[in-house]
Automatic annotation (TrEMBL):
Transmembrane segments: none annotated. Residues 7-112 form the Peptidase M15A C-terminal domain. InterPro entries: Peptidase_M15A_C, Zn_M74/Hedgehog-like. This is Peptidase M15A C-terminal domain-containing protein. Gene3D superfamilies: 3.30.1380.10. It comes from the Bacteria.
Length: 122
């Protein structure tokens, strides 16, 4: 299990399914460290809408089958002070996200540390 960073608790990334046998805390440390770098860069709180999803929950919320959320390397985030487009621009300055996935949606941004570049709009 990943350890907390200065501004993020591993529990914020746990699966929301609520099932007894879910490995709720399967978030990758690299994701948390990259998000901490983003947090340091913007200097204002980031809210985690969705982090790790077990396969059951991923299916329930309509995630793609091999979702990076299921691998614990993705988070959907938003920030009260910045628009998703602005937040995504800052994410480009964090190496693990620059060389990872950044998806811009209407009210949130998906970031992941997949190790190769992917960009899209939701
Ligand atoms: Zn679950
Ligand atoms: Zn996502």
């Amino acid at each position: 299990m990943a350890h907390d960073t200065r501004n993020f608790k591993a529990a914020e990334f746990s699966c929301r399914c609520g099932r007894f046998d879910c490995p709720h805390h399967a978030v990758d440390q690299r994701l948390m460290d990259a998000l901490q770098q983003l947090r340091d860069l913007i200097g204002v709180p980031i809210h985690v809408n969705s982090g790790y999803r077990c396969p059951f929950w991923n299916k329930r919320v309509g995630g793609v089958r091999n979702s990076t959320h299921v691998r614990g390397i993705a988070a959907d985030i938003r920030c009260g002070e910045l628009t998703p487009a602005e937040l995504a621009r800052f994410a480009e300055e964090v190496p693990a996200f620059a060389n990872g996935g950044i998806g811009v949606y209407k009210s949130w941004v998906h970031v992941d540390v997949r190790g190769k570049r992917a960009r899209w709009r939701g």
